[in-house]
Structures are given as C-alpha cells and as structure tokens.
Design brief:
homodimer, seven-stranded mixed sheet, 26 strands, 11 helices
Chain lengths: ~450, ~450
C-alpha cells in the first residue's frame, strides 16, 4: 500500500455516529459531490455516513484554512470543475481538514453538526460539467466474451493488447443515479429482414464500468507521460453505459457506436478520491504470460507495481414483479476493477499521447469490467450469450434483455487487510417505456 | 427559394463601403461571431465587409430594441450559446435590425460607424462552448471512394443508405481558423510489420466538411421530428476534420475513430445563419434512382423540396516552398454541399431519434463532402488513392499526405441567380512538427 496516512487509520471514528461502520461512507472515504435540497441552488458537499457536510457552509463559518480553504472555495460554483482543476495538492489538503473536522473530539463539532444535511432528503447531481466523455474498452473478459459471439476463432482483435481502445461518448447523455430514462427508439435490421425498421429497442442492456474523473488535465499538443498520469485523475465513480444492442449491431460500421449509447449514461454521483482509494491499490495483473510488452509511452514501473485498483463491482436487477413482491434485488454480477487490461494511468497517457487536451471535469468510462467466469458478466449480452440463453430470476421470471420498469443497481466496495472498507454509493436507474416512435 | 426577404435584396447596400461587393461578408450575410482585440475580453460581433460591428456596444448605445435587443443581450457572455438557445425568432429579429442599421441611409450611421472594428486587427474565437461535437459521414462520394480502397466490390456498407452514419467527436479538439497545431504522435502498425510502433503520424490528412451549429435543441427523451428539425439549426461554418490515417487504420476496430481525429478540428469562426443561406436552398438530390426510401422518421416533403444547400466548397494547399516563392495556394478540391446524402434536418432528426438531447452550441460535422470526380476530392486519402498516387504541385513538389509547415485553407461561397453571393470566411491552419515522442 502507498500513500496511506492518518486519514485512513482503522481506529479513526467520526462524531457523525452513523458514519462508523457505514458500508459506503465512513470517515475514511469522504467523497465529494454536488447536492441540492428542494429548490435550493446546487452546492458542494462531502458524504459522511448518511449525511452530507455542506462545504460552502464550512467556508462561511471559518472551519477551513490554507489550501483546504482554497479547495473548498473552488467548489462554490455549483460544479466541482474548478476544484478538479486544482489537482492533488489542494484536494488532499481538503481531505485532511475534513477528516479532522469530522473526527471524534474536534473542538468545532457542534458547529459542524449544524452544517450537516440528511442525505436522504437531498438530491445528488452530476458533480461536474463534463467537457468530453470517453469510453474505453479495457475489460478484457468483456472484449473476449463479446468477440467470441462474433468471431469464435479470433475473439480479440489484433490491436487489443497494444492499444487502449476507446471511443468518444456523448457528454449530454450522462445523468446522476436515480434519474429514470426512456427506452430508446432506434433503427435496426431484424434478423432475416433485408430492410431496417424503426421502433423501441428490443435488446436493451447495461454495462458495468468504472468511471474516472479527470483533473487538472493538459494543454493542447502536450502529452501526459504515463508516470505523471495518476496526477491527472481526480477521482472515481460507477458508470452504467446503457446500450441498445439491436441498434448498435446495425449502425456501428464503420465509425463505431453512436445512437446505441447516447440516450443515457448513469453515474454514481460521489467522486471517490484517489486518496480514499489508496489502501485498495494493487499491482497490474490483467496481462497474461506471453502478452506483448506495451510500448514505452504506456509503461511505467511504479504504475505497474501499484496502479491497478482492487474494488469489488456488483450489478443487481430489480424487476417490477420483484419490486411488487418486496423481493431484494437479484445479483447479476460480481466482478472487480482488477480485470481492466489497462491501468487508468495508461488510459490517460494514451488519450493525451496525440496532444488531445483533457480538461477538468472530463469523464472516462473504463469499458465493461466483466470477470473471467459467468458470475462476473458485466452485461446481459455476455450473461445471456447475445440473448440466446435467458437467465432465470428468483421469482420465476426470466430475462434476455431489460424490460420496461426494470432497474439496474451497481455497487462498488473496496476491502483490504488493515483498512476500513469503503463504498462508492449506488448507481441505479429505472427503464421507462419508449416514447411513441415518430412516424 | 424560400424565406427570402428584404435583408437579401440584391440592391441593398451598406454604408460600410468595403462590404459592397465583398466576396464573403456583404450586408446580405451578417454572420455572428466572438472576437477580441488584444487582451480585451471576448465579445460578440457581426461581420460586415472587412469590419466587425460590436453587438454589445450596439446594446449600450441603444441601437437595438425588442426581440433584437434580447438576442444581442443573450450574446453578452463571451460565447453565443445563450443566443443560439433562443432559436430562430430572436435571431431573425437581430438580423433584420442589423441589416437596417448597416444599410445605406440609416440615421445612426455615424454612431454605428464608431462601433466598428477592423477585422484584420481582431482575433476570432470558437463562437460557442461546444457541449458535444458529432461528426457525420454524409458525403456519399467520400464514403464510396474510401470504401473502394478497402472493399472494391462493395464500397458502401449495407447501412449507408438507411442510417445517417455518425460518431461522437472530441469537443476539446475544436479550434478557430488560424490556430496552428502539432502533427500528432500515435500508435500505428507499419505495413509488413507484426507489431506497432509509436511516433509522428506519417499519413496526415484533411477532411472538407460543413459544420452545423445547433440551437435551441431538445430535452432528454424527446425526439425532434424531421419536419421541425430545421428550427434547431442555428447556423453553419466550415470544418476541417484533420485525420491521422495511419493511426486510424490501426486503432479503429471495433469502436471507430479516436486518437486519429482528436488532436485538432479547425472551424471557420463565423456562424453563417440559416437566414443568410435562404437564397441557396435547393432540393435534396443526392439520392439516386433505385435508392431505398428513407424511413418515415427521416422523411419530410418540405425538407426534400428545399432542405439541401447549394454552397461551393474549396480546399487549397499552401506549402512552405510555395509560401517562400510567393505563390498562391493551390486548389486541391472544388466540391459542393449538395453532395451530402442526408439533409441537415435528417441529421438532427436521426441524432435525437433515440431521445439524445442536443444542446445550444453543439456542433455537427457533415462528413467529408467530396464531389463525384477527382477534382472534388475532399481528402488526400481520396486524391492520392490512399497515398499510392502522389499529386503534383505547381512548383514541382508533390504530396502523398501533409508535411510540416503545410497549410490547408477552406473556403465556401453561395451563389444563386437573383441573390448577392456570400461566403463563410476562411477555415485555415498550419501543421507544426510533432512534439518529441515520449519514450
């Protein structure tokens, strides 16, 4: 483990009682977000147990000083872009200050307690204005499984183990957890038909991904060396890259996914910082014996040694029938961020290697992070083998792809010996029926 | 011709003497942009001849009223997003008011003359904060020519004449005309090699495209019917989708172009409005006898009747040797916006058909608009047949692809019987050498 400090200490407890032992937001986490109450304006906060501490109110009441004060002030515009732009130093200073304020025995405990909001009474928003959203394809087990459906003899394309494959996504499609969306209409060519038709997507799917928030980023024409790339990652979230498989199959040649992805992308709204995740860093181990050595611009020894993440990822399904029966969500997948073939630093270095400028508030998706076995499938495409093998649900129902009213719920948790477990908070959304197709 | 009014009248002349007979910006054009002088802040303006009229100053001096005043006020933030959000009504009102102010004989001519800036002393900027940039593939002659290089027997993919193919581009890559950029480094696999290497792009190309500015756009989940789509187009520009062909060939499977495009995209900075282009509307004629009927969501009789544009597009090359010798730029291509297989309204309707929200300030590229013959090739990929057939330059040099110091210059002009010709202004940029590849 690297960069473990007092803010992670296993004995550290908060005077916010519900934070101690909290599965997501103990005092060792302290993720950053943007929230509102009722019709109030959006403001920055930090999650602590079942509460949110108002950062602007901390500033107003003089609870912060120095670099932590500068960081909190940068978060006062209703988005976190300016805070992400400051980079690791001010973000760490803010973490240290908030950890002290929220720890047992702080002298201003009573004042700080008056600046807490019950999270259940707040709305969480997309925490930054996203300049560009890029979706990678780093989940090698997903790439293998999807490739096998189309090319059984050569599932991985020749470039896969050399190039961190990615594509530009649609920034406007990104919504915070809890925002329902309509099943998309789209153009697709049914099997056996010679002509396409247009109507509600028949093969609606989810994709289980890690989201990566960028800050501060680079200037145009200036690449970020892989050894410095971690300094341009401001934090992490969960990301559901909802996918219309029938639309995708018909539209994607030759320029890649377009309307099959741009109708909705759901993220967990809290930015879990690299500092909070320090105890869950591991060596990069997704490359196999005999795999090609990455090119030098993608290779850094320290990144290989501790640049991967060990965070459990889960995907659950809650159908209308299960909801009506009071049943718990059904787990579709248990996977892990370790299954990414490329580290986040490699993604950053590759993305900027042509001089492309990354800006504070840019968002990456990792690509679908499936595990090696069927219980780790991060999409229904894999789990039902392209819809050919429906999965059985505990209430007797089944699914090939998602139906109206279905909800997909992602969770993520880091656990490690000697560390307090932390979570990302939920990434969930309900599928609403398609609007009437225009005729 | 539709929507022709007094602002287009062929006898209309301006008291700005250099506007009369101006190849780009006569009083019949009045494109909108964002400019600055020296270190001054960015402000909105309208091009008139070799000058720019300061919109904020017009507001301050009481030259505007009603909807025109509201439109000009919306342009006061240093970007035109809020003006684009207002839609056609206020934009038209502003055009009518500006046309009157700038026409011969206006009572406030002396005051307005004091609010002019010499365009040559101003810097023009990207006129709006681009939320998302989408690049279409609507140039059928380009798609045919590129397809023939790879699939001589079946150059067009089966979806081409059904789906307005597009992909998400990189918003951060968009620069205003005149901003030089570095040749990108990138990963590519040389012919005959089994492994890729990394270094300066060897096959740097341009793509001649029409740019389309969106406003006001739609809310998530709500498609824009094709018959209403023209109302969500705020204007047009030229767009150079610079392309690294060697990088593209190696990276693009299975998710499409990524770093081969994201290093730079150059646009002409003036937004030429749909009102200014009204005299250059023509029937959609790019579909051939026997082509499939587009699906109903893409079909509108009025759009087919007058939804295409007849604007000449030119691409010129100026090499360092030509520049040193004082030679004029060499014309590589003369093409026309008529060669788009899909109208702009069809692009808007398709893009939003899945509920994807388009926002004011979003930018579309049309795709490379090549003509049917070799003199209309909108890229070197076509002109040199993938680099196999170098083109000869008038000074004795030749080109397969672009070399350092080369400048590509696009121009666009609308001409029609009974109308004053207008232009878009130049879209130009110089290729700088690649930075040292990181090792």
């Amino acid at each position: 483990m690297t960069n473990i400090d007092a803010t992670h200490h296993i004995t550290l407890q908060s005077w916010v009682a519900d934070a101690n032992g909290h599965a997501e937001f103990p005092i060792q986490n302290l993720p950053l977000g943007i929230f509102s109450r009722g019709a109030d304006e959006r403001r920055a906060g930090v999650a602590i147990g079942d509460h949110i501490l108002d950062l602007g109110a901390c500033v107003a009441h003089g609870l912060l000083g120095g670099a932590a004060l500068a960081a909190a002030r940068a978060a006062s515009s209703g988005t976190l872009n300016d805070l992400l732009a400051l980079g690791a130093g001010p973000r760490r200073a803010l973490r240290v200050a908030l950890s002290a304020i929220l720890a047992n025995g702080h002298r201003a405990q009573d004042l700080a307690a008056s600046l807490l909001h019950e999270a259940a009474r707040c709305t969480l928003h997309v925490p930054a204005a996203i300049g560009d959203y890029t979706d990678f394809y780093a989940g090698i087990h997903h790439a293998l499984a999807v490739g096998k459906l189309f090319r059984p003899d050569a599932p991985l394309l020749p470039n896969y183990k050399h190039v961190p494959i990615g594509y530009h996504g649609r920034a406007s499609s990104v919504r915070a957890s809890g925002v329902a969306f309509h099943r998309p209409n789209g153009q697709r060519k049914p099997a056996g038909s010679t002509v396409p038709d247009f109507g509600p997507c028949r093969n609606l799917d989810f994709e289980l991904e890690l989201g990566i928030w960028i800050g501060p980023g680079n200037t145009p024409g200036t690449a970020i060396p892989v050894g410095e790339a971690a300094g341009h990652v401001a934090g992490f979230c969960l990301l559901n890259d909802w996918s219309a498989r029938d639309v995708q199959a018909w539209e994607y040649q030759p320029l890649g996914p377009f309307l099959a992805k741009s109708f909705a992308t759901t993220i967990s709204p809290w930015i879990v910082t690299p500092e909070a995740l320090a105890p869950f860093r591991v060596a990069q181990a997704a490359r196999s014996e005999g795999d090609p050595q990455p090119l030098p611009y993608l290779w850094d020894a320290a990144d290989q040694h501790a640049g991967a993440l060990d965070v459990d990822l889960e995907a659950y399904l809650l159908t209308p029938a299960m909801r009506a029966a009071g049943q718990a969500p059904f787990r579709l997948a248990l996977s892990n961020t370790r299954y990414a073939y490329w580290t986040v630093a490699q993604m950053v270095a590759h993305h900027s290697s042509n001089g492309c400028d990354l800006r504070p508030g840019d968002l990456f998706g990792s690509g679908t992070l499936s595990g090696p076995a069927m219980d780790g499938c991060g999409s229904l495409l894999e789990l039902t083998e392209g819809g050919r093998t429906p999965i059985a649900l505990p209430n007797g129902g089944s699914r090939r792809f998602l139906e109206d009213g279905d909800e997909i719920i992602f969770q993520a948790h880091g656990t490690a010996a000697g560390a307090v477990p932390i979570g990302f908070g939920a990434c969930r959304a309900v599928v609403l029926p398609a609007p009437s197709p225009l005729s």
